[in-house]
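Backbone-to-sequence.
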């Protein structure tokens, strides 16, 4: 009956309740957190980050999921909550990554807060898009991506991406992003 791809598992349909006011996934079955100490090497001001780590190593962001098979044909989805704050004057951000399968894109829907999706290609082209509730950002295939919280409440977004995408953090750790976001005199500066 089906012209199935052999590597795609057949699973049962399911639904997940989202709280669109708080920007939460109710009863996620997987929660991944990254504390400040997981962000070493990513911020301009390494000493300021060490102070935050010494001060209790707070959760920087968390990812809520109901995982599905990481295979072609399936769609991964999650809610990420990136807390507000700065390291020195640089806005809190996610580590960022390329997808391991570089020809896979991703859709983000901002639910709460204010921020930026910073994107770059391997040859250094850089673009960013604004996050605010109700705004969707399309991350095309090949673009590395990182969320940045420029506001004073959690930045919450829902994302969907192909099951086979995978995450490549190593190349972003080596390359960094050409642009960063700072709060200076109450304004957001990208430079
Ligand atoms: C998945 C994706 C998001 C991020 C999440 C945390 O492909 O882009 O779900 O994984 O926002 O960011 P990272 O993975 O960079 O720590
Ligand atoms: Zn991604």
């Amino acid at each position: 009956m089906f012209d199935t791809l052999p590597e795609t598992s057949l699973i049962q349909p399911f639904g997940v309740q989202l709280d669109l006011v708080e920007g939460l996934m109710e009863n996620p079955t997987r929660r991944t957190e990254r504390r400040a100490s997981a962000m070493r090497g990513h911020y301009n001001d390494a000493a300021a980050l060490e102070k935050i780590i010494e001060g209790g190593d707070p959760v920087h962001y968390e990812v809520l999921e109901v995982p599905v098979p990481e295979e072609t044909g399936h769609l991964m989805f999650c809610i990420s909550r990136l807390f507000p704050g700065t390291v020195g004057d640089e806005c809190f951000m996610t580590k960022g990554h390329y997808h391991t399968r570089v020809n896979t894109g991703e859709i983000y829907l901002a639910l709460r807060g204010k921020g930026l999706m910073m994107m770059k290609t391997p040859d250094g082209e850089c673009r960013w898009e604004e996050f605010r509730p109700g705004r969707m950002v399309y991350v095309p295939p090949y673009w590395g991506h990182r969320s940045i919280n420029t506001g004073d409440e959690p930045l919450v977004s829902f994302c969907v991406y192909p099951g086979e995408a995978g995450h490549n953090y190593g190349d972003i750790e080596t390359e960094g992003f050409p642009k960063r976001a700072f709060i200076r005199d109450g304004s957001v500066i990208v430079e």
